[in-house]
């Protein structure tokens, strides 16, 4: 493990890895360009990744007029941007989740967020399989050691542990996505833990997006009741793992 960390500190991506990651990036760019070219001629200066709630409200106001007439293009564009952000660990997906609620309502919004977040997490997982080892050893050596030890300890009930991680903020989702293949979390376990574990937080965020104008800060998303509920679900999900540890 220590040897891997030392070798990873040089950030050694070979030519094949760089080309592979570049091809993934170009694929997203080509897809977004294709969506843009199918839209009517107009002023799209409002189209940018939101970094604040004000940016998000401008984006919501700009897209509302297109959502009904160009639903397919808006959906495809939304999905590609969300998956792109998840794949390359770009901050700000919480704003995209809020946007889903503002544009599509709770049920459609939750379904859309869970789908895109799971697809983006999966894309990040497989990208990490290709280029992730030197990057994760370089950026998060101590966190990776902790994660690897926990995965090895809970191997028999790994799904419950992954579900716990998704429901609670124990580890950042971006780190989980990128580090999971490095510590040998099977994809089927990663996928199921992601698609199920993201539902509670997606519901909270999407529901808040409906009343976007009432939000003063991102901190308003998670009141005490929401946080307590998420932790309660997380405790339930990890209980079989803890019981197994005690029995062994």
TrEMBL record:
It is found in: Membrane. Residues 90-209 form the VTT domain. The keyword Signal does not apply. Signal peptide: none annotated. Its main location: membrane. It comes from the Eukaryota. The chain crosses the membrane at residues 20-39, 75-100, 106-127, 163-183, 189-210, 222-243. InterPro entries: TM41A/B, VTT_dom. PANTHER family: PTHR43220, SNARE ASSOCIATED GOLGI PROTEIN FAMILY. This is VTT domain-containing protein.
